[in-house]
């Protein structure tokens, strides 16, 4: 520190704060939000803290200063978090028989005209047909606005109650032996549904989930206009509701004897409690296994946000993972292929 200029000393103090913040944030994925709702809000800043520490690391390396060790050590401690943010190379396996699964939050097929682009339902269906997934999971699905039931012989479309604006859907080329809904107890449309698919001589249970929204307007101008205390409080409450929903889902998952896939819109990041809680040691994040880049799944102009996931039973081989830059909703569709 003595040999540093005044400017570099100030920079190192900022570096120390960012490194400490990142180190503490590693723990947030293991702290139930209901215990410390406001603290859990900090998990949303993990991607930014990672990038800031990478910039500090690069700065000190360029200047040939040993202060680079601070951010390097903190990043190495949380290397799993770093790779949750970005994958450097795509892994593609092939097998003669594959099952392709697509998850897509379709934003009610533009029912409320969030975009001026015309014929959104037809374009979404055209995109789905073009990629031809064997199983399609949709969130914010409005009933009967598409012909997907004509494309897929087996389907389960469900709304929690008659007043729900939208629901969830599972479409399949394979027979459904059983299907059901968890009907989360909270008010609103968020929910999880499942279907048991007969695939050759095996049965696979697929959960389609849509956890509680944090109700954050993503544009910077909207965030500036928002009252900060109300915003943080609302996000903390949303995290607590997500925890309760994830616990409801986990009970159902743990009672399942079939190989299982959990997929859908988590409305949270890979640094969150609910992600770590559901993934545990039994599931593989398909993006981490076979994806590339940031795996962006939500339209956010200033940051590549991944909030849609496919957690695959570790007994299943993941052949590929894709995130499609298709701006027909506020979410991008994701798809994985597994060996059957």
From TrEMBL:
Matching InterPro entries: Endo/exonu/phosph_ase_sf, Endo/exonuclease/phosphatase, GPI-anchor_lipid_remodeler
GO molecular function: endonuclease activity; exonuclease activity
Cellular component annotations (GO), alphabetically ordered: membrane
GO biological process, one term: GPI anchor biosynthetic process
Keywords: Endonuclease, Exonuclease, Hydrolase, Membrane, Nuclease, Transmembrane, Transmembrane helix
Membrane-spanning ranges: 12-32, 38-61, 68-88
Gene3D superfamilies, per database record: Endonuclease/exonuclease/phosphatase (3.60.10.10)
Sequence ranges assigned to domain Endonuclease/exonuclease/phosphatase in this UniProt record: 102-331
Name by which UniProt lists this protein: Metal-dependent hydrolase, endonuclease/exonuclease/phosphatase family
Lineage, uppermost ranks: Bacteria, Pseudomonadati, Bacteroidota, Flavobacteriia, Flavobacteriales
